[in-house]
Amino acid sequence: MMRESRWLFLLLFFLLFNSVDASSQEHGSDLVKRGRYIFSLAGGCACQSVPRGIENAGGRAFPIPFGTVYSTNITQDKETGLGNWTDSQIHDAIVKGSRRDGSKIIPVMPYEAYSGMAQEDLKALIAYLKTLKPVKKATPGIYV
Question: Is the distance from CB of 63 to CB of 56 less than 8 angstroms?
């Protein structure tokens, strides 16, 4: 059931995402607004938030066959989030599944599904992520 839901979500994401006009040239707050829109199309990244917890701070558990992994903090916290990441490092995490140190992210994060995003949309998404208020992650575990 969970696997079917994941594929249904990805199908819905691509159907909605394909309706977005990627040709616009937005700057500043318009770029952030577009990034927030793209972020919401991806489910507002509910995978990065514990239900009824702090948004985007990570720590959501994902049981997989060899154990449980926990989602990553995507806020601008410099110690536990993306605060010290460059745009290029965030881009590589989203589309290549590479951590800041170059190691691979466990494929619970469907980075392969984002690898076909238009560069303008990735730029907008990264601009939006850089506006997320810093929050420290509190849940210990293996983070993807």
Answer: no
Q: What length is written for the chain?
A: 144
CATH number 1.20.120 given to 2-15+26-129: no
Q: Which residues of the chain have pLDDT under 70?
A: 1-27, 44-45, 107, 138-144
Q: What is the DSSP letter of 64?
A: E
pTM over 0.85: no
User: Contact 129/35 with Cβ under 8 angstroms?
Assistant: yes
Report H helices in the chain: 2-17, 28-41, 87-96, 111-114, 119-129
Helix (H) or strand (E) holding 113: helix 111-114
CA-based R_g, the chain, Å: 15
Which tokens is 120 given? 């303008």
26 vs 36: CA distance, rounded Å: 13
Residue 10's CB is within 10 A of a number of other CB atoms, namely 14
Domain boundaries, the chain: 2-15+26-129
